[in-house]
Structure formats: C-alpha cells, structure tokens
Amino acid sequence: MACALLILPAVSAFAQPTVYRCETNRKVAYSDEPCIGAKVIDATPTQGMDKMTGRTSKGKEVRRDELNRMFDGAVRPITGKSTEEMNVLRRRVHLPGKDQAQCGSLDDRLARLEAAAPTAAARDKAKADFDLYQARKQFFDLRC
After folding, report:
1. Is the pTM of this model over 0.70?
2. Residue with more model confidence, 130 or 62
3. For the chain, which residues make up each domain, given as ranges?
C-alpha cells in the first residue's frame, strides 16, 4: 500500500514547460525552445478561481498539483526533498539512467551559466549567451 502511494504522484506528474522570451531584430517571440540571449519568463497558469458561491473551480492539473504538494509534505521527513525537488524527480522518472545523470549535471551547469551570463563583460557576452543556449538546448533535447 505504501509503495502504491509513492508511485501515484510520480505517475500522474506533468510539469509546465519552461517558456523563453526571444528577441530577434526587435521582434519578440515566446517559445518552449531556447534561443540565444533568451530570457526565462514565468508562465504559470492560475490556480483556480473562487466563485461568489464559495465553491472553488479547479482544473485537473491544479488538483493534482495540490495532491502532490500534500504528499510531498507528508514524505518530506523521509525523503528530505522539497516539492520542487520531488517535481524534478517525477518529471525525470521515465528517462533512462544515463539521461537522468546528464540532467543532474546540467542542473548545476545551467545554474552557473544563468548567473554568469547577465554579468559577463561586453566582449564575453556573446560567448556566455551561446554557452547558456547550448546548455538549455541540451536540457530541452533530453527532456529534463
């Protein structure tokens, strides 16, 4: 029974894709695929709407997300992982082991590159943006 409870949230997890704001020749486009110089934007959907009657209208994904958050809170003393960390695990559970390892190393690399790109000197800016693009593209292609 406990094993089934651990698998339930993992099987039903769907993550929102990362959305990038790409600017080319003063034209702005939004995409789930990275581009050079892209900025990550928050495109999180609303979490349901309370009606005047006091009832809450929530979609399937919102209810699933709430269930996952409650589950993660219950097992946190055992796993030591936050909801965000558990969501990453749910998203990657179906990837081959090699891809999971690459995704883990890309997590660290992306964090470093995203911190370095905005502060890069003018002469290094293009290389920093390109390195960030390559890492994001690999992350996207692996379906991390």
Report:
1. no
2. 130
3. 62-93, 96-143
